[in-house]
TrEMBL record:
It comes from Winogradskyella endarachnes. The keyword Magnesium does not apply. Residues 11-67, 86-139 form the CBS domain. PANTHER family: CBS DOMAIN-CONTAINING PROTEIN (PTHR43080:SF2), CBS DOMAIN-CONTAINING PROTEIN CBSX3, MITOCHONDRIAL (PTHR43080). It holds the Pfam family CBS. This is CBS domain-containing protein. Keywords: CBS domain. The keyword Cytoplasm does not apply. It comes from the Bacteria. Gene3D superfamilies: CBS-domain.
Length: 139
């Protein structure tokens, strides 16, 4: 295994983002449409938070809605804002971090995704799934 491979080689570069002005209904639709579990919340290109599908499950019955369903229970979502639900003070990594460094961070923390930020702007996202897929290719 190459220990010095850059995270930029496995990160997702086509990033789905939200702004804190977006609503939670939009967030759920993005999670389901793109089959993702984490969405960085940005102001311009700067990461100000992270929203996970688990965050939505904590406040709603989102998991009770069929994955192909486009209607969601907006009553619960109208009670909260993205800013209230998102994780603030997000840990980020730069694109030149090694895969090993990122794996260590994810292994020690309670989250499963890290925004990749260069010069204050988001350039990607790396998840535990990205790391698992990388390992599968090596085996």
């Amino acid at each position: 295994m190459k220990n010095d491979a850059s995270i930029s080689t496995i990160m997702t570069k086509d990033i789905i983002t939200l702004s804190k002005e977006d609503d939670l209904e939009k967030a759920e639709l993005l999670f389901k449409r793109h089959k993702i579990r984490h969405i960085p919340v940005v102001k311009e290109d700067a990461v100000i938070g992270m929203l996970s599908y688990t965050d939505l499950l904590r406040i709603s019955f989102a998991d009770a809605v069929d994955e192909t369903e486009t209607e969601v229970d907006s009553l619960v979502y109208n009670m909260f804002s993205i800013h209230q639900v998102m994780v603030k003070n997000v840990v980020t990594v730069s694109s030149d971090c090694t895969i090993k460094e990122v794996a260590k961070i994810l292994a020690k923390k309670e989250f499963h995704a890290l925004p990749v930020v260069d010069n204050g702007s988001i350039v990607g996202i790396v998840t535990t799934t990205d790391l698992i897929n990388y390992l599968i290719k090596l085996l």
